[in-house]
């Protein structure tokens, strides 16, 4: 079954619909998320979550253990733990799975200084599951680690993702 994702930033929720136009299809999944602490914005280096139509262009982390730590989209061989986090308190951890997004709207979230893919905007697991439901990321969409595994297994490269205020 094809699926369409809609991220409502005001609600801090990610919804999956059964492939029909936004809001019309049957909801097949619903997860709390955490978007950017600094709000919405399209510009590179803004640390804000981009709005608009996107799609998943890469899926990274097949079969990795829960809490696998990624750096530059590569596994590090480390499994995150609270002790590891305490030793590296300033790190924005990217864990478990990565769904790398690309913008589909030239000039808004595609190309130049607004290119979502070149900004490295992902949907990914987090070490701060206690902050889900609250804007707290550096621009990405954070999810719980079990939730990102479930979502990763439901979506394909090319899955549409609408990010709405």
UniProtKB/TrEMBL annotation:
Gene3D superfamilies: L,D-transpeptidase catalytic domain-like
Signal peptide limits: none
InterPro entries per UniProt: LD-transpeptidase, LD_TPept_cat_dom, Transpep_catalytic_dom
Keyword Transferase found: yes
GO terms for cellular component: extracellular region
GO molecular function, one term: glycosyltransferase activity
Key words, A-Z: Cell shape, Cell wall biogenesis/degradation, Glycosyltransferase, Hydrolase, Peptidoglycan synthesis, Transferase
Pathway it works in: Cell wall biogenesis; peptidoglycan biosynthesis
GO terms under biological process: cell wall organization; peptidoglycan-protein cross-linking; regulation of cell shape
Every L,D-TPase catalytic domain range: 3-164
Family: Belongs to the YkuD family.
Name of the protein in question: L,D-TPase catalytic domain-containing protein
Native organism: mine drainage metagenome
